[in-house]
Design brief:
CATH class: Mainly Beta
Helix content: 25-40%
Protein name: Bacterial PH domain
Number of domains: 1
Strand content: 15-25%
Number of helices: 4
Largest sheet: 5 strands, antiparallel
Order of helices and strands: HEEEEEEEEHHH
Pfam family, one: bPH_1
CATH superfamily: Bacterial Pleckstrin homology domain
InterPro entries: PHb, PHb_sf, YvbH_oligomer_dom
CATH architecture: Roll
Number of strands: 8
CATH topology: PH-domain like
């Protein structure tokens, strides 16, 4: 046990560990991930965690993960996760024990599970990210329920129509029904599927 603790402390001192640091807003433009942000489309960085090998760049549109193979390799893989297409859930924050050097935030983004170690001295800042992700998760959950209710309502309406005789040209009836269904689903997506969570980040992130 003592050997493991000393090993971790030595690794951190020598710069061999992968404990992330929260980057100040004035340095956002200096991280690698900034090169891949869609500034032209209004995307904005709100929070950045940078470790020896990885960057986690949180924006109003989602998460940009600059994935490094290891601390010494220059090879990087850029992965984008967007709130519009993927849900955030199971957000947890693990604080440090007496001898721990790091704290940890965990969450699912779509099908991927993230577990990010951060310097324990930056707990207060990480709490802000935790609250923002929890709020986003709750909003997405409510939106998902609303979309499901809307889809079920549409199915019931179509079933009711199919059981009744409709007057008119069958081709026109089918075209009108298909157009109505498309517009209904499009309206559901536009109403209950947020693309931009900038307001949530501005509410919780104290930049």
């Amino acid at each position: 046990m003592a050997k493991n603790i000393l090993g971790r402390m030595a690794a951190d001192t020598l710069g061999l560990s992968d404990i992330g640091k929260i980057i100040s807003p004035q340095d956002f433009d200096k991280v690698d991930g900034d090169d891949y942000i869609m500034h032209e489309d209004g995307e904005k960085i709100y929070f950045v965690i940078k470790s020896k090998s990885d960057e986690y760049v949180f924006t109003n549109r989602g998460l940009l993960h600059v994935d490094g193979a290891n601390a010494v390799s220059r090879k990087r893989v850029v992965k984008r996760h967007e709130f519009y297409y993927e849900r955030v859930d199971e957000v947890t924050l693990e604080t440090a024990g007496t001898v721990d050097l790091d704290i940890e935030i965990k969450f699912n983004f779509g099908n991927e599970r993230f577990s990010i170690d951060v310097d324990k001295k930056q707990l207060e800042q990480l709490k802000d990210l935790y609250k923002a992700l929890v709020e986003i998760s709750m909003i997405q959950g409510r939106n998902y329920t609303s979309v499901e209710d809307g889809i079920n309502g549409l199915k019931m309406a179509n079933d009711a129509i199919s059981r009744n005789h409709l007057e008119g040209n069958p081709v026109n009836i089918v075209e009108d029904l298909a157009k109505f269904n498309f517009n209904w689903m499009e309206n559901l997506r536009n109403t209950y599927n947020n693309k931009d969570f900038g307001e949530v980040f501005e509410k919780y992130i104290n930049n």
